[in-house]
Specification:
- The protein is mainly alpha-helical.
- The chain has a domain at 53-149: Arc Repressor Mutant, subunit A (Orthogonal Bundle), CATH 1.10.10.
- It is 60% helix and 7% strand.
- It has 6 helices and 3 strands.
- It has a 3-stranded antiparallel beta sheet with strand order 1-3-2.
- Helix 2 (52-62) packs across helix 5 (115-135).
Length: 166
């Protein structure tokens, strides 16, 4: 069951002029997203031996045996080209992924898992399931579904932010 969120500030601290209760909730929400993402990253490295973006990259590539175009992959993951390139270089060094020319356009690069990458993903996926079970202990399926939908809406809102916003 959802709980009410306290929006009062600590004693002695007034909100700066122009801040509404909604502004305070937005600030708190984005701080909690930041905090959860950092905890997830730290725990994933400690417990699974892979960064969150590395695990997500392996998982995304596992979905299609042919691989994905580099541009599709970084857009799908929501990371920068530079960040994905660094992750892929590390995975290539370990022999888990390879970059090959796209059949329809030699200027484009496809990224796909190697056989070792497929095995690494299968192992990581199994260990991740237990990691996720532990991380969501005490959270109902309904709460998770609501959270997933809410985060998807926030992601769409963030993607829509641009120079012509009002």
């Amino acid at each position: 069951m959802p709980t009410a969120i306290k929006i009062a500030t600590r004693a002695g601290r007034d909100l700066p002029a122009g801040n509404s209760s909604r502004d305070h909730l937005n600030n708190k929400l984005f701080f909690r997203l930041f905090q959860a993402a950092n905890i997830y990253e730290t725990q994933a490295m400690r417990e699974l031996g892979f960064s969150a973006v590395t695990g997500a990259t392996l998982g995304a590539l596992y979905r299609d045996p042919e691989g994905m175009l580099f541009a599709e992959l970084y857009a799908y993951l929501g990371v920068s080209r530079q960040n994905l390139d660094a992750v892929l270089k590390g995975l290539e060094k370990k022999g888990l992924v390879e970059r090959i020319e796209a059949e329809d356009d030699r200027r484009k690069r496809m990224v796909r898992l190697t056989q070792d990458g497929i095995e690494a993903w299968k192992d990581l996926h199994q260990r991740s399931l237990e990691f996720f079970r532990q991380g969501t202990k005490g959270v109902s399926a309904t709460e998770m579904t609501d959270c997933i939908e809410t985060l998807a809406r926030i992601a769409r809102g963030l993607r829509a932010i641009g120079p012509d916003r009002n």
